[in-house]
Amino acid sequence: MGCQLCGFAARTQPSIGLLDPLYAKCLYFEDDGERLLWLHADLIGFDAADVATFRAWAKGELELDPHQVMLSATHTHNGPPTIRLAGCGEYDAGYVQWLLEQLQQAAVEAIANIEPCRLVRAEGRIDLAVDRRGKPSAHTDARVGLLAAQRDNGSYKAALVNHVMHQVALGSQCRQISADVAGQVAAVLREQLDGSPTVLLTNGGAGNINPPQSNVPYAQVQTWGRQIAVCALDALDESVPIEPASLKSARQVAALPLQGMSHTQMQQYAAKGFTHWYETMAERLDEDPQPLCDDVELFAVRLGDVHFVGVAAEAFSRLADDLRDATGRTLYVIGYANGDVGYIPPAAACAEGGYEVDDAFLYYNSFPFRPGGHELLCTQATTMISQLPLS
After folding, report:
1. I want to staple 361 with a disulfide (CB 3.0 to 4.6 A). Which of 21, 125, 330, 368 is the partner?
2. For 309-319, how does the pLDDT look when each residue is reduced to its tens digit (9 = 90+)?
3. Mean pLDDT of 108-112
4. Which burial class, exposed, middle or buried, applies to 82 when counting CB atoms under 10 A from its CB (0-12, 13-18, 19+)?
5. Confidence of residue 289 (pLDDT cuts 50, 70, 90)
6. Do residues 357 and 343 touch, judged by C-beta distance below 8 A?
7. Is 227 exposed, middle or buried (0-12, 13-18, 19+ CB in 10 A)?
């Protein structure tokens, strides 16, 4: 307690209390020579440089290649600053160093604790989250995806849940540390499932998706968490085995074009108080040739016939449906995976404007992405998935 909190500019710092603990969870899979280490934390996100540091350790100590290591986050706005968001809490290098050590320990313990399991999958629906933009292109994803590892005795070793919603229920007025709704879902499932499994509540393309309200009492956060958990439990009653439960993963980096600006255009933002952004971008314009691009990592995992696509950004909920339509696969997007470069809206949302299009890039210390970035990610991810054959 006493650390700064990351996610809101309109917040009084630092933290003053603890509502619930933050966890890092680890899943480790082996199958016929394939390996996957998946770490997931109750944090706003991971800085790409810190992901690279962890992967270098995993390569040296565990003999895992980058395409075998994924780090994802719930995107809670009530945890310490682990990414560099301007005005939203200062990046906490000391905490991050300690965090990486905890992740290393979790990885070692997970690998030492493997046992044979069968995989089952299920999917429920809950109409809880809302499209916060209020624009004609509004889209939500009500799916609650569930993949569970089950022992021979019927108990569960682990569960991986996917639900799309910004973790901002507590809002900017809350100065207490919390995993928000995601933490409540994971806690209820761990309590209710036989075997007290490790539970990862992963986020999806939540760039446009909020809870029904923000700045709500903690009791409301607990209620929403229980509702999502009950939806997952009900779905698990109708689960089906994944046979064969084979594993494949892949990784690639997409270069997405940015909208450059003239110094005159940038000075307009400096006049509004974004002087650090102006200085940073002016230096970048002077050093980088046009057109400017930012790298966005894509990470694809296939577990049996279930696919996960990690995106190092705040993707929009439409990405999952676009990929489902393009591939015909059972698929879930994992947002805030292996980094976070900011919002990547679909072309329709770019034309509509709004915070995610017109302002968010200022906090991410970058230029906005050009329209078409979402569509380019979809095309590249579709190609990746096609290279992870089902047989």
Report:
1. 368
2. 999 999 999 99
3. 97
4. buried
5. low
6. yes
7. middle
Q: Whose CA is closest to 139, among 204, 201, 229, 183?
A: 204
**CA 43 to chain CA mean position, Å:** 9
Distance CA 17, CA 6 (A): 15
Q: pLDDT grade, residue 390 (50/70/90)?
A: confident
Q: Report pTM.
A: 0.96
Phi and psi, residue 242, nearest 5°: -100, 110
Q: How confident is the model at residue 386 (pLDDT cuts 50, 70, 90)?
A: very high
Beta-bridged to residue 146, according to DSSP, are: 122, 161
pLDDT for 93 beyond 90? yes
Residue from 364, 327, 326 nearest 343 by CA: 364
Domain borders along the chain are: 17-241, 247-386
What is the per-residue burial (b if ≥16 Cβ within 10 Å, else e) of 242-277? Answer: beebbbbbbbeebebbbebbeeeebeebbeeebeeb
